[in-house]
Amino acid sequence: MSKGGFSVFLALLSVFFAAFALMTAARYAADQFFPNKDAEYSPDLSWEVFVQLIGLRDAGDDANLAAKFVGVITILIGLVLFSSLVAFITQQFEYRLQLLRKGKSIVVEENHTLILGFSDRIADIIKELVVGNESEPDAAVVILSEKDKENMDDFIRNNITELKTTRVVTRNGAITSLNNLKKVGVEVAKSVVILNDAKPSDTEQFKILSDARVVKAILAVVAANGEENLPQIVVELHSEKYRRLAENIATKSVTTLNEADILARILVQTSRSVGLATVYLNLVGFEGNEFYFYRHDSIWPKITFTELPFHFRNGIPIGVRHADGNLILKPSKDYKLAEDDEVIILAEDDSTIQFYPEPVVQPQDLGYANYWTTLERKSEKYLIIGWNSKTSIALKEYAEYVLEHSHVNLIVEDLTNDIKTEFEILAKNYPHIKMEVLRINLDSIEDLKQLKPYEYHTISILAGSGENIEEIDAKTLAILLEIRQIFKEYMAETGNKVTTNLIAEIIDSENTDLVIQAGVKDFLLTNQFVSKILAQVSQEPDVMSIYQDLFSADGSELYIKPASLYFPVQKLGRLTFADCVLAAQHRDEVCIGVRIAAQAQDKDKNFGIYLVPSMDRLLYLTINDSLITLADDQS
């Protein structure tokens, strides 16, 4: 028994056959000394002993007393031994089922996506991977976590309605254990995603401990695979120190992501160009449009980057990647493609990307080639409500974007010494803008009125702290409703229209309908953004470099600009998307889509956002509609 179940099974089997041999010998001896007088009774003694041992035959009515006595003894011995063997097999079967329920068995999948850890964003990650794996007939996602397997399975069943061609396998165990990693097939996985236990609302100390645990998990993956055979590893880390450590462990295989940094940059860009949050949600996942690195089957013809878009029916080139890995978004209009260049294309699916030697569509000459107008940039006024890990990053980004004498103010409920000190350092580093921090009671509508929120261009409400996601989002919605009430009262008293944009950080995507009803023009879905990026980067790590460029104040960013900047008012109306692309090129921009103002509040129509329509698609643009472009600035 000390050697385990298999040894017990062999022992019982050995005793059974020993008993069979002993009782067969006893039966032969009985028949030898006490022969059966009935001539018709001449059984196969070995077979009869065997079936008596397993309980399928009685002692025999026609046998003599000696044969019956041996038969009874045989049946009793068989009853004990065979029952023990059956009981052991049943016990082992139940034990194996129990192991499966506990998630301790070995995973047999190969070329799967391995997720280490289990957090609130797991459902969004799996949903993204399900979409990304639709072209694969039998894809697998394996999850290793210290949570109970049955609880993980129940969570996935309750939150993911359709898995399509993807199977989800869960296993229980420590993510830093080499044995556990080998059980879940880390050596044959195509990519590894390591989730961070810390939430944005957790303390800095807990975030540091969680980061250290993630780095330890990276070391375990490297130890299990060896540095030469590492899969792509995507990790979520809060600390800059631990991000450097993680990337140095395996430079080419580890991609790190900082939730606060990415979301803060998106927040600033979204607040300055309403509608961008929806655009980004369409870009950072497998659902909607994605970035692809496309290389032509033969040598690129001698065409410029300006001519390139019209050689694709579906998909918009936004940049190039050179042979040395250097990536350039929106290269100069006269740039000619090199033989070994890869084109960065935004498209719905890689199967729709096809380069045509001749232009597939010719934009119309509508007389706007020499039309040039710009938006006059003025000083701006922004308000951030709430302090979390994104606030200081957002303040820095605002300082990089806005003009001199602009205002960037901060409102908090609890103005601690740490917040005050960090804010003062930021204000000192950016003396060209006016920065002020105020402490107010966010539950008091009178305190909010004193801020005169209708005087700001944009008010951004960051998620606070709370016991759970529902509580955090409830606080955000309460502030939204109070500010909207102030707007209504102001318009009723003065008759003036409020143009202030409301931006909210929403953690649970299920609350988007409530946010729209609260009057929010744009919103950040925290879990969705980060989960989509984690899922996409796990399958294509090079995409991360595109996101880093897009989310940075340096270089080109995405903007939603009025159509009147590109077309004279009298030319608006029936246009093709190719016309929009050409009009944007005259301003040294890349058009990737349009925004229809009349559908801005319609969730079913993607809030009026249409990305990468076919080149020949007819659009009906009004003076209220906009073009979505990759540009150097907002003007």
TrEMBL record:
It is a multi-pass membrane protein. The keyword Chaperone does not apply. It is found in: Endomembrane system. Pfam families: Castor_Poll_mid, Slo-like_RCK. Residues 110-223 form the RCK N-terminal domain. InterPro entries: CASTOR/POLLUX/SYM8-like, CASTOR/POLLUX/SYM8_dom, RCK_N. Residues 1-29 form the signal peptide. Keywords: Ion transport, Membrane, Signal, Transmembrane, Transmembrane helix, Transport. The chain crosses the membrane at residues 65-89. The keyword Transferase does not apply. Coiled coil: none annotated. GO terms for biological process: potassium ion transport. Its main location: membrane. It comes from the Bacteria. One of its GO terms (cellular component) is endomembrane system. Residues 261-354 form the CASTOR/POLLUX/SYM8 ion channel conserved domain. Belongs to the castor/pollux (TC 1.A.1.23) family. This is Uncharacterized protein.
